[in-house]
Amino acid sequence: MAIRGRRQVGKSRLVQEFCDRAGVPYFFFTATKGASSVEAVAEFLSGLRESALPRDRELVPSVGSGDWPDAFRALAAMLPDRPSSRGVG
Asked: Which of 21, 24, 25, 57 is least enclosed by beta carbons within 10 angstroms?
């Protein structure tokens, strides 16, 4: 899915609202402009650890390598094996 539009019109808020109403675990991350790769990955992993996705928060690495592929592998390990069958109400 792609969401396009002018700056500051509420695209991120729309996604956040959809996720909130879906009633399923999710992880929403917004990168900080100007952050180094190490800082961004650390923030990503911290957000993932605090989200509702991980069944066991200890499985999320506490220290990142600053490597996005490793961060995405950590995210993939937290995702359920199947898509949620719940609809948005």
From this structure: 21
Calculate the alpha carbon distances from 75 to 7, 9, 12, 21, 66 in Å: 27, 28, 20, 22, 14
Question: Which two tokens mark 25?
Answer: 């675990």
Radius of gyration of the chain (CA): 14
Alpha-carbon distance 2 to 32, whole Å?
A: 20
Amino acid occupying residue 36: S
Crossing angle for the helix pair 68-78 and 37-50, nearest 10 degrees?
Answer: 10
pTM for the model stands at: 0.74
Q: Is 35 helix (H, G, I), strand (E, B) or coil?
A: coil
**CA geometry: angle at 81 spanning 23 and 26, to 5°?**
30
* Structural contact between residues 79 and 53, judged by C-beta atoms closer than 8 angstroms: yes
pLDDT tens, 14-49? 988 988 898 888 888 888 899 898 899 999 999 999
